[in-house]
Amino acid sequence: MAVRPKKKAKAGYMISAVAELYRVHPQTLRLYERVGLLKPSRSEGNTRLYTDADLERLEVILNLTRELGVNLAGIEIILNMRDKMADMQSQMEAFIEFVRNEVARGFLASTEHHGRHAIVRTAPRHAIRIEK
């Protein structure tokens, strides 16, 4: 009989603890969820569980409302833009890594095959910088 590893549970904070910690009413947190600003997971008993990522997002929301006076529609736009920027950043990092790998692979291939089939073999070419 094979022993299956237990699934790792995500740590979560209940709505009452989050409300007390951030000095907001639980109804405010429910409102943020209803309008789509927060998306806490649910336990088997349907209790809202806020992860560390949810709390970081809540801190941004509270900073925008308390410090900058941004309304819910503005917060939604700002958070969507932040999410899109994070996606673009990860795509750019993946693209840069791909280009680096391709350039390195091409460089290695060119140095390995340089002059292999030439009638007269020459030394590898080097770029020379000319400054005016």
Structural commentary:
This protein is 56% helix and 5% strand. It has one domain (13-113): Orthogonal Bundle (Multidrug-efflux Transporter Regulator, Chain: A, Domain 2). Strand 2 (41-42) and strand 3 (48-50) form a beta hairpin. The longest helix has 42 residues, at 72-113. The protein has 132 residues and is mostly helical. A 3-stranded antiparallel beta sheet has the order 1-3-2. Mean pLDDT is 85; it is low at 1-9. The chain has 4 helices and 3 strands. It is elongated, with a radius of gyration of 27 Å.
State the gist of this model.
β2 and β3 (48-50) form a beta hairpin. The chain has 132 residues and is mostly helical. Helix content is 56%, strand content 5%.
Tell me the structural class. Answer: mainly alpha
- The global form is elongated
The arrangement of helices and strands along the chain is EHHEEHH
Give a quick account of the main beta sheet: strands, pairing sense, barrel closure.
Answer: 3 strands, antiparallel
Work out the number of β strands: 3
Give the mean pLDDT.
Answer: 85
Radius of gyration: 27 Å
Low-confidence stretches: 1-9
In the CATH scheme, the class would be: Mainly Alpha
| Assembly context of the chains | single chain
Number of helices: 4
Sheet with the most strands: spatial strand order: 1-3-2
Q: Helix proportion of residues, in percent?
A: 55-70%
The span between the termini is: 77 Å
Please give the domain count: 1
| CATH architecture title | Orthogonal Bundle
Any idea of the CATH topology? Multidrug-efflux Transporter Regulator, Chain: A, Domain 2
DSSP strand content: 5-15%
